[in-house]
Specification:
By secondary structure, the chain is α+β, with helices and mostly antiparallel strands. The protein has helices spanning 7-38, 42-70, 82-93, 111-126, 156-162, 175-187, and strands spanning 79-81, 98-102, 108-110, 132-139, 142-148, 190-197, 200-207. The chain has a single domain (7-207), classed as Heat Shock Protein 90, CATH 3.30.565.10. 52% of the residues lie in helices and 20% in strands. Strands 2-4-5-7-6 form a five-stranded mixed β-sheet, covered by helices on one side. The protein has a two-stranded antiparallel ribbon with strand order 1-3. A hairpin with a 2-residue loop joins strand 6 (190-197) and strand 7. Helix 2 packs antiparallel against helix 3 (82-93). The protein is globular and about 65 Å long. The two termini are 13 Å apart.
């Protein structure tokens, strides 16, 4: 695959993606602390403290996930534990909108394969905007993320990026995650494809 984005543009857009994920819980922490400073009512102060605690947990989970999915966790050429990745993914997803079924068995895998699987998970979550379930599976030479739910769909821009049909000037912080998944697949010698069925979207990476 020819590289549509320069490395600098890719890094900048991935940073924007991470900031997009983190800004909401960090902003909620700031709001909660402000409420605690301004409120005299003890009950309101307890609610504000709970907001801070919950948002801090969310921010921590998102940072851990982004470090693993986008960052240099473990260093180049290292192996990562699929079980640990699953634990971090569950914290990231939570239990509000999407039910995550992480069925990939524990075991050490090439770092780029683990990162690719986490990025497939993100693609699957984006395919069920109204909520649903995402099932993650991994075997020798096959990684998959299957999204099921009401209104499950493959966004036009996601399809276009997977088809290498989006010019560099049209990439944004969301589209770059799809592109990054393609780059990871290329680096790990996998072929990435999506399949749409009624009520489901399947993302699969197959070793070349």
């Amino acid at each position: 695959m020819s590289n549509l984005l320069s490395d600098l543009d890719l890094a900048a857009l991935l940073c924007s993606r991470v900031c997009h994920d983190i800004v909401s819980p960090v902003g909620a922490i700031a709001n909660g602390l402000e409420m605690m400073d301004e409120e005299d009512d003890e009950e309101m102060r307890k609610l504000a403290l709970e907001l801070v605690r919950r948002s801090a947990r969310q921010a921590s989970a998102k940072l851990q996930f982004c470090r693993l999915a986008f960052g240099a966790a473990g260093g180049a050429g290292s192996m990562l534990d699929l079980g640990e990745a699953g634990d971090i993914a569950r914290l990231f997803v939570g239990d509000e909108k999407v039910k995550l079924d992480w069925l990939a068995a524990r075991g050490m895998r090439d770092r780029n394969e683990v990162k690719l699987l986490l990025n497939l998970m993100l693609l699957a979550i984006a395919a069920v905007p109204r909520g649903g379930s995402v099932r993650i599976e991994a075997s020798d030479g096959l990684l998959s993320a299957i999204a099921e739910g009401d209104g499950a769909r493959l966004a036009d821009k996601t399809r276009a990026v997977l088809d290498r049909a989006v010019p560099a000037a049209e990439f944004d912080a969301r589209a770059v995650q799809v592109y990054y998944a393609l780059r990871l697949a290329e680096e790990a010698r996998f072929t990435l494809a999506a399949e749409v069925r009624p009520g489901a979207v399947m993302f699969r990476a197959v070793r070349q």
